[in-house]
Design a protein that fits this description.
Elements lengths: L1 H11 L8 H15 L7 H10 L12 H8 L5 H12 L14 H12 L3 H14 L17 H6 L4 H7 L11 H25 L4
Helix pairs in contact: 2-3, 2-6, 3-5, 3-6, 5-6, 6-10, 7-9, 7-10
């Protein structure tokens, strides 16, 4: 685990603050919390998948080379390597076109990652990513899309607040572990409070 951490740390710290190594550390922490309630899960695979799940993130690269290279160096059997690839493939939201999380390990990693996309940290990450991409804070004329292809989701540069309605506010109901569902509830409510306060301030009512 320590060797993998060192291998991926420099990769993530080349990304913007929304997907740097601190993001990975928080997802690991979320995963550990969920793992404590899921005794049948393979904890090693969960931790390795968390560490590797964004090294070839489509927001930053078109290639899976880094992910495959790192997985191939792991001292585990081929079946576990393939399992890690399947876990990683099922994590992304993809504009609502996500792949199914078929195993408990995949469910834990998906929930752990999505928990870091909501709540106070999720808000901070959204505006960090938007700032890095030169996006507007909000756009009152922009309508949130309710259906889109993965390509449409990734290529249209929407305002940061629009992203809440296209993804973040949907995640609470997409959690698949019981602990993940519990943890998501408070974070979801915090986002609703933030959006209400933001609207009030923009309209001069706060």
């Amino acid at each position: 685990m320590e060797n993998v951490k060192e291998a991926v740390k420099n990769i993530y710290n080349q990304f913007d603050a929304s997907h740097d190594f601190q993001h990975i550390e928080r997802v690991l922490q979320n995963a550990e919390t969920i793992l404590a309630t899921e005794q049948l899960a393979d904890a090693e695979l969960v931790r390795l998948a968390v560490l590797l799940h964004d090294v070839s993130d489509k927001k930053y690269t078109d290639s899976k080379d880094t992910e495959n290279q790192l997985i191939n160096t792991l001292p585990i059997d081929d079946e576990k390597k393939e399992h890690i690839r399947e876990i990683i493939a099922s994590v992304s939201f993809n504009g609502g076109n996500e792949l199914p999380a078929k195993t408990i390990e995949a469910k834990i990693v998906r929930d752990a990652d999505r928990l870091d996309a909501i709540g106070a940290v999720g808000i901070a990450r959204t505006f960090a990513f938007g700032g890095a991409k030169g996006r507007k804070l909000y756009d009152d004329e922009e309508e949130a899309r309710t259906a889109m292809s993965e390509e449409e989701y990734r290529t249209k540069s929407t305002a940061s607040v629009t992203h809440f309605y296209e993804k973040l506010l949907l995640l609470k109901d997409l959690m698949v572990t019981e602990k993940g569902k519990q943890m998501a509830e408070e974070r979801h409510q915090f986002m609703l409070s933030f959006l209400k306060q933001l609207k009030n301030e923009r309209e001069g009512r706060a």
